[in-house]
Amino acid sequence: MKLARYFAERITALRYEDLPPEAVYWSKVAVMDTLGVMLAGSCEEAPHLLEDVLDLNGAGDCLLVGGARRASPLDAALINGTAAHVLDFDNTAAHMGGHVSAVMVPALLAAAEAFDASGRDLLLGHAVGYEVGARLARA
Known about the structure:
It is a single chain. By secondary structure, the protein is an all-alpha fold. The chain has helices at residues 2-13, 21-41, 45-54, 73-85, 100-114, 119-138; strands spanning 62-63, 70-71. A two-stranded antiparallel ribbon has the order 1-2. The protein is globular.
């Protein structure tokens, strides 16, 4: 629990202005890259199957990338996350062993829409999520 508390305290104390320029730059690159693969993946069958199974009926505050359909934050994160990963073009983080942004960006987008957050808030969330993941991978 000490590690979780440490991360929570550090995360809530950070501001966008605290980020080094390199972190902002690479977060922008990762978010844009993920949006691109999410858009491409939105044309695939997997995200549409999820939409059918979840029976969305257009209800929700969060946009499903690739159209005008909306869903709840959790459903949008799941569907957009599936679209982000379905073509396997998403970015990788070798030192963490995976496709970090395909998981984070859809969740960050949904949270940003649900809580009316800014683009800077989204980039801060990405930078922090990446850093936390990197630290956990090294632990």
